[in-house]
Specification:
Elements lengths: L2 H5 L5 H12 L47 H7 L4 E5 L4 E5 L1 H7 L8 H4 L1 H5 L3 H10 L3 E7 L5 E13 L10 E12 L1 H28 L11 E7 L9 E10 L2 E9 L3 H20 L4 H15 L5 E9 L4 E7 L5 E3 L5 E3 L4 E2 L12 E4 L4 E6 L11 H13 L5 H11 L10 E8 L11 E7 L5 H15 L4 H21 L4 E7 L3 E8 L19 H8 L2 E6 L5 E8 L3
Parallel strand pairs: 10-13
Antiparallel strand pairs: 1-2, 1-5, 3-4, 4-5, 6-16, 7-8, 8-9, 9-10, 10-14, 11-12, 11-15, 15-16, 17-18, 18-19, 19-21, 20-21
Helix pairs in contact: 8-9, 9-10, 13-14, 14-15
Amino acid sequence: MNFTRWSARLPGTQRRAAARDNRSSVPAARGEYAGAGPGSAAPEGNTPKAFGEVSGPASEPAPGPALEDLSARELLGRLPAPVALVYGPDHRIAYVNDAYAAAFGPRPTGATAADAMPELDELSLLPLMDQVLRSGTPRTVKSRKVRNGSSYTVTCTPVATPAAHTEEDGSGEGSESGVLVYAADVTDHAEAAERLRTSERRHRETAVTLQRSLLPQELEQPDDLRIAATYQPGGTDAAVGGDWYDVITLGAGRTALVIGDVMGRGVRAAAVMGQLRTAVRAYARLDLPPHEVLQLLDGLAAEIDASQIATCAYAVHDPNEGRLVYASAGHLPILVRDEDGSVRRAEDPTGPPLGTGGWIHTSGTIALPPGSTAVLYTDGLVERRSEDIDEGVAALERALSGAKGSPQVVCDRLIRSLGVTAEHDDDVAVLVVQHPARTGANAELFHNASLDLLGGIEAAPRARAFATGVLTSWRFPVELCDLGVLAASELVANSLQHGTPPMRLGLRRTDRRLIIEVTDGDDHLPRRRRAEPVDEAGRGISIVATIASSWGSRRTPGGGKAVWCEFALPQ
């Protein structure tokens, strides 16, 4: 193909050639002026200056070479970027410049690009070139890599090329479309972008690893509840947040449930989350009411980082009461699904987030009867940029009303129903708690018995007789019966000596443990101490701590205290 012939057909070339011809058709001899005939005198005041003289305040610069005077082959040949010209529907090679040959090797003229230019196939340009030919519109692809590791941003521009015909066929000159391929080497930029992406990916992996390591590796499973939890970090474009959950067994069959969310993103939010979770577990061991736990956390959150605030919901389940006692610091409401599918929402009281200070938190209650399911969650599950968060909570209620199955199945169904995917823009934590309704043989593993301690000192022998009868009826081994009666006797004696009415002895059996609990009206908690040989008292709690698997005490909401101990059942 004659490069000189079709170079005149490059876009804009014909117009520039016409303009050049027009200028050349109006010659101006030295000393002549446009608009004056030959031999005409110059207008007064416009007489040319002698050579070297300056006319006016500044001399007019000499015009540079016109663009149309430059050869297209010369321009393309001097470009440092690879350039190739192909023509026809099969993209036959018309020209490659020196930079193209240096980058990919020389290419034979007339060969098809599919056969002689494998680099175009590596860059996935052949279908794009077909599209450019059909549409007549330039197309650009960014940062494509070839086998040698170089990256290119390539622009394919349509051009009209004159088709070569022989004079014998009498057809004259026609035109055939071609594509000009311009490849800019962006290897340095691509490598820098890849290093940045790698750094961001490692930073995210570090944050996710830290986040997951701070969450419970294995959830505690209380005797009376079935629990499952799910944590899903945000997509790759979202930094890891500070969502967390926890399940803490408090003893005497009671369980603390925690869900929280630290505002912010990244490793810092995850680190603050870890500190708050550790603090919650420590405060929970004190067996404090939920609002007192949040009160302590509020002050601690401000000390950890005044710029970070967090929301948190803390709830305690007592199997003897069949309800959740909870407190909320700016967190979304707990949802409870009853056995018939109706969903209830734990409303007030809700205080401000942790770390704000100056607020007195209070506790509320919501029923959790057998057969019901409670869901605690973070805002990533229900919050969407395009809708109000109340609409998201309502959507979660609808999804929960039809969610049946095990706690893990319910977790997965809620995640799917709310449209949470791997590319979700926020972290999501969900904690599902089921209080199963037990019937038949399974129900026989769970029993409760209690006795009001009346009559002063005569209550001690009645308590021992009651405990002996109940433990025997539950068909415990003789050794366990004896230990249980001894523990009940010591706890009752301690309450009679140091407590005030009303007093009550409770015995509870689960599928895994025996629980003995004594309550009275005095709020002074007992402590274990070393009794001297000459002391006649002070050994009761030490005896209980020695023979039982665990023991503890707590203040009751209405005033007074409860002292309890547990025995693990033989498997």
